Amino acid sequence: MAEVDCAGRSFTSLRDAFFRDGLIKFTSCSIRPHLDALAGHTLKNELARDSHQARRAALDPHTRSLLHFLHGRKSLPFQTLQFKVGTQRRTHSDAVHFDTLPTRGQMVATWLALEDIHPTAGP
Predict the structure, then answer these.
(1) Mind spelling out the 3-state secondary structure of 9-76?
(2) What is the model's pTM?
C-alpha cells in the first residue's frame, strides 16, 4: 500500500501534483510536536539559542519519506531559516543560491507555518 500524508493523500497523488504544479501542500503525520515546540520558542524569541527543535523539525521522518519518494533518493537537510516577522518577499527562486551541482534540480524548500494561515496572509 502506498504511503499517505495525514490528510489522506497518497504520495503518488502528491508526486503527480508536485510535478504538475511545482508545489504541494503536505501534511506530515509526525511533525506537529516539533512545530508546537518551535512556535513556543519563537514566541519567546529563544529559537536562536535552542536550534535543537529546528533540527528535529528539519529531520522529520514523514517529510523526508515524501522527499525520498519524490526524488528517488534520500534527502539531506542542510539549512534552516527562521524569521520572527515575515520577509514580505515577492515570488522568487532560490535556485541561484542553493543549486545542487553536479545534478541540478534536486533542491527542495519546505515552509512550516508556526501560526494560523489564511488566504489573505500572502502568496
Answers:
(1) CEHHHHHHHHHHHCCCCCCCCCCHHHHHHHHHHHHCCCCCCCCHHHHHHHCCHHHHHHHHHHHCCCCC
(2) 0.72
Residue 66 CB burial class (10 angstroms; 0-12, 13-18, ≥19)? buried
Angle of CA points 56, 80, 45, to nearest 5°: 80
For residue 7, the 8-state DSSP code is: T
Per-residue pLDDT of the chain (123 residues; tens, 9 = 90+): 459 999 999 999 999 998 899 888 888 889 888 777 777 665 555 555 557 777 888 888 999 999 999 888 888 887 766 666 666 777 777 777 777 777 777 777 777 776 777 777 655
Written as nine digits, the cell of 75 is 534527502
Q: Give the up-direction half-sphere exposure of residue 122: CA atoms within 13 A in the CB hemisphere.
A: 8
| One-letter identity of residue 86 | G
Yes or no: say if 81 and 48 are a contact pair by the CB < 8 Å rule.
Answer: no
